[in-house]
Design goal:
188 residues, alpha+beta, 8-stranded antiparallel β-sheet, 1 helix, 8 strands, 18% helix, 33% strand, globular, binds copper (II) ion, binds zinc ion
Length: 188
């Protein structure tokens, strides 16, 4: 009888320990989620670099299959223009070079947005019409709003020329004509 009681006590103790450790996990994730909700939307407002007229807005919206990127850019010369996320959210220099190189947390080669080997920041090109406006929308499977591929606080750069999608590490897209920092926009 004493033995059974001891066994029951041991089982009860074990259950309590399991309960405590499980309980410790749940409030941590729950509390974390409450304090820092997942980012659902981000925005970059693009301003022209010195001597240029390119401006616009790029929005980023989280979807189950990736981040939907919507761009509306004006003041371009007609045709294709390189369009990337660059590593630093710093548009302070006159030529936009303060934004650094292409955002590349995976240390991969430059490529097209549809390539498996690409910089996370490789969005390829936007194409401006005869009026100099480029409107484009697509869903990117690589970029995120958290973790090493997070684009928050980095910069969107539009280039004077076309990204050839193969020249390393820039795509040979030429000068930077517009720059904007990506910020959180969960303003619902
Ligand atoms: Cu670029
Ligand atoms: Zn690149």
């Amino acid at each position: 009888m004493k033995n059974l009681k001891l066994q029951l006590t041991t089982i009860l103790l074990c259950l309590t320990v399991v309960g405590i450790s499980a309980g410790q996990h749940q409030p941590q994730t729950g509390g974390h989620a409450e304090m820092k909700p997942a980012i659902e939307k981000a925005i970059a407002v693009l301003y022209p670099t010195k001597g240029n007229t390119v401006s616009g807005i790029v929005t980023f919206t989280k979807l189950p299959e990736g981040i939907k990127v919507t761009s509306n850019i004006t003041g371009l010369t007609p045709g294709k223009h390189g369009f990337h996320i660059h590593e630093f959210g710093d548009c302070s220099s006159e030529d936009g070079t303060s934004a650094g190189g292409h955002f590349n947390p995976s240390m991969m080669a430059h490529g097209a947005p549809t390539d498996s080997v690409r910089h996370s920041g490789d969005f390829g090109n936007i194409t401006a019409d005869s009026a100099g406006t480029a409107i484009m929308e697509w869903i990117d499977p690589v970029i995120t709003f958290d973790g090493p591929h997070s684009i928050i606080g980095r910069a969107v750069i539009i280039h004077a020329g076309e990204d050839d999608l193969k020249t390393q590490p820039t795509g040979a897209a030429g000068a930077r004509v517009a720059c904007g920092v990506i910020g959180i926009d969960d303003n619902k």
